[in-house]
Design brief:
Elements: E1 9-14, E2 16-29, E3 36-49, H1 50-60, E4 63-71, H2 74-86, E5 89-95, E6 101-108, E7 111-118, H3 126-139, E8 145-149, H4 158-170, E9 175-178, E10 192-193, H5 197-204, H6 211-225, E11 230-233, E12 239-243, E13 246-250, H7 263-276, H8 281-295, H9 306-315, E14 325-326, H10 328-340, E15 345-350, H11 357-367, E16 372-378, H12 380-387, H13 396-404, E17 411-415, H14 421-427, E18 431-435, E19 451-455, H15 463-474
Helix pairs in contact: 1-7, 3-4, 5-6, 7-8, 8-9
């Protein structure tokens, strides 16, 4: 992973917009025209365009400023409010008569029926350009890095882009650009650009088919825009970097790809984040690949956190079973994240020495009470104190591994204390589950969980009886 030694301050300049969704269902066709009638159930809005870069930077832990141009309309007020709520410091120039971008999508059963856009796509006025540049000159020394998020909506004009990049270079500030269009000379002097393969082919006029043509395209882009480095993102193949006349490719590894929407925004944000902390370019690219691997496993324009990247990185080097065994610190972060996702967390604990049908039945019932089951497992020392010196039969590592392989168990955490109170206080479960033999007794952690549930054991099934049976066979 990259070195994180401070909270970077990054400035984003580009095209802001609101992504607006109308969610509903459709079970009939309109009598007025051959179109579905959608019964709207809810309405949501998220920051789009450069706003997705901003959201990614904020989720990584950066402080973020944004400069852009909006209209003098209600959408601009809504956009400003959303930026404030997200935690970004916004410097928005209002241009009379301009329409602030808002893209509305009507969704029926998670399928998009139609999209309608409210926006201006023409270049901003000379007066707006002047105001942006003046604001940039005023703010530049507050920021470690400048990111251009160009969606082709007219904010980053050729003249303005060149002026900002030149001024940034004179002040020893790097500018990284997610480009748009065919003419990359507008980004002359940038540190590097982050075009995808298709965009790079159009801008370089080189068809990328093999290592030779990839290098040719990278050289063409570097020459065209007088870049410090040349980069092309290659989707699942990773990111290609031209450095000292050598092409370096760092692959990305995605466990599952659900949606590539917004992956380019995540790459731009994570590269800017890593580099602003003083990390070298190759390490920053590897970090960006991990971030992209996380977001393509989500649905919709997604953001990524440092915890998710760390967990994802560790998952690439572990078996899927070992990945479910967590430390106290890891499970606390996971539980916090699950709560932000509105997941119902269930917790139970025990020794689970020799796994049998009663254990599995109990755990299956426990899992049915929520979305995620976290199991606190007594350590070997803890089991000895509870059960005697001849227990456990199986080591904590073996027990944790076997339990993690069960479909109903999401995470296993080993604890060494006599009770799991400290662990429960970190997890803060919605539901605490114990055996029915606790009826009328105080359940440790019940004052932390929202509710406590008792589950009946399977008659005749216990580790003690299993051990007795094994001993009787040996006689």
């Amino acid at each position: 992973m990259i070195t994180i030694n401070k909270k970077p301050n990054i400035l984003v300049i580009g095209d802001l917009m609101i992504d607006h969704y109308l969610w509903g269902s459709s079970d009939r066709i309109s009598p007025e025209a051959p179109v579905p009638v959608v019964d709207i159930k809810k309405e949501t809005t998220v920051l789009g365009g450069a706003g997705n870069v901003i959201n990614n930077l904020l989720s990584l832990g950066s402080q973020v400023g944004v400069i852009s141009v909006v209209g003098d309309d209600e959408v601009a007020k809504e956009l400003k409010s959303m930026l404030d709520k997200a935690g970004a410091k916004s410097f928005l120039i209002e241009q009379k008569g301009r329409k602030t971008s808002k893209k509305s999508r009507i969704m029926a059963s998670h399928s998009q029926v139609v999209r309608y856009d409210h926006e201006s796509k023409n270049s901003i006025s000379f007066e707006s350009e002047k105001k942006i540049f003046e604001k940039f000159q005023e703010l530049i020394n507050r920021y470690d890095m400048i990111l251009f998020s160009d969606y082709g909506k007219g904010v980053l004009t050729k003249e303005l882009s060149k002026k900002i990049i030149a001024y940034a270079k004179n002040n020893n500030k790097k500018v990284i650009v997610d480009p748009k269009g065919e003419d990359y000379s507008k980004y002359e002097g940038a540190y590097f650009l982050t075009p995808n393969k298709k965009e790079a082919q159009i801008a370089s006029k080189v068809q990328i088919e093999n290592p030779d043509t990839l290098k040719k395209a990278l050289v063409a882009l570097k020459t065209c825009a007088n870049l410090q480095y040349s980069i092309i993102t290659l989707s699942e193949q990773g990111i290609a970097l031209l450095k000292d006349d050598e092409v370096i490719i760092r692959p990305t590894v995605a466990r599952e790809v659900f949606d590539v929407t917004g992956a380019g925004d995540t790459v731009l944000a994570s590269l800017g984040f890593a580099l602003s902390l003083g990390n070298d370019l190759v390490s920053s690219i590897e970090f960006a690949n991990l971030a992209a691997g996380v977001v393509v496993g989500k649905i919709g324009s997604a953001t990524v956190t440092l915890d998710e990247i760390e967990e994802y990185k560790s998952s690439l080097n572990k078996s899927s079973i070992e990945l479910h065994i967590k430390t106290f610190d890891e499970i606390e972060k996971i539980a916090n994240r699950l709560r932000t996702q509105d997941k119902k967390i269930v917790f139970t604990n025990g020794c689970f020495d020799i796994l049998h049908k009663g254990h599995v039945s109990y755990l299956n019932v426990a899992k049915s009470f929520g979305d995620v089951l976290i199991l606190g497992l007594n350590s070997d020392e803890s089991v000895k104190r509870l059960k005697g010196e001849d227990r456990p039969i199986n080591t904590q590592e073996d027990r944790a591994y076997i339990l993690s392989a069960l479909e109903c168990v999401d995470y296993v955490v080993i604890f060494n204390e006599d009770t799991p109170y400290e662990l429960i206080s970190k997890v803060k479960p919605d539901v605490l589950v114990k055996g029915a033999d606790y009826e009328g007794k105080e359940v440790v952690g019940s004052n932390i969980a929202k509710e406590t549930k008792l589950v009946e054991f399977v008659d005749g099934k216990s580790t003690t009886k299993t051990i007795e049976k094994i001993k009787s066979v040996g006689k």
